[in-house]
Request: fold
Amino acid sequence: MKKLLIALAAVSCISTAFAEKVTTVDFDSTKMECHGQHIDDGISKDKVKDMHCKKYQDKKTDVVFVDDRSKKMVDCKVDSVGNITLAKCTSI
Reply:
């Protein structure tokens, strides 16, 4: 029984020593990406749609999608012409 407990303790110590470190990327509206393509300021919402961003939704006055870099849902306001201003993008 003692050998089993010692072996179990050794395995748990080893597995935590070699565990992958998790890093989180903070949301930055100037560094958003979809499928490896950078989203620039003033891009049209149609171009963002053509990038096939995950969970893309067009809500007329704003668009919602997943930023591949930060892995967060993003809500961006759309101007009257249909362009996105990155300063008006927030993670939700």
